[in-house]
Write a structure and sequence with these properties.
Elements (H helix, E strand, L loop, with lengths): L1 H23 L12 H27 L6 H28 L6
Helix pairs in contact: 1-2, 1-3, 2-3
Length: about 100
C-alpha cells in the first residue's frame, strides 16, 4: 500500500505541476491574458485529478497502518505537494534565468 501511495503521490505532483503551469505560466501568444478559456480547460482537470489523488494517497497511507488521523494525512500530502510545486517552480525560474554571459 505504501508503494502504491508513493507512486500515486508522484503522479499527483506531476498533475498539479502541469495544471498550475497551464493556468498560471503559459500565455498562448504575446498579449493574451493568462486566464484564457482554452487554458482553463487544459489546466483545471489536472489540478482536480491531483486533488483526488492526494486524498487517495492520504487514505492509502492511513490504511497501511499509520497512526495519524485522516485529516492530518491529507494535510501532510497537500503540504508536501505544495512544497515540491514551489521548489520545482523556483528551479524552473532559476534555469530560465540562466543565459550565456550572465555569469
Amino acid at each position: 500500500m505504501k508503494i502504491l501511495s508513493g507512486i500515486l503521490f508522484v503522479i499527483a505532483r506531476l498533475a498539479l505541476y502541469a495544471g498550475a503551469v497551464m493556468l498560471l505560466f503559459v500565455p498562448g501568444y504575446p498579449g493574451e491574458g493568462y486566464f484564457a478559456p482554452k487554458r482553463m480547460l487544459y489546466g483545471i482537470p489536472p489540478i482536480l485529478l491531483s486533488i483526488t489523488l492526494l486524498v487517495t494517497v492520504a487514505w492509502l497511507w492511513i490504511r497501511s497502518g499509520s497512526d495519524i488521523s485522516l485529516r492530518r494525512a491529507i494535510t501532510n500530502s497537500f503540504l508536501w505537494a505544495m512544497g515540491t510545486l514551489t521548489f520545482l517552480s523556483i528551479v524552473a525560474m532559476f534555469i530560465g534565468g540562466i543565459r550565456p554571459g550572465n555569469w
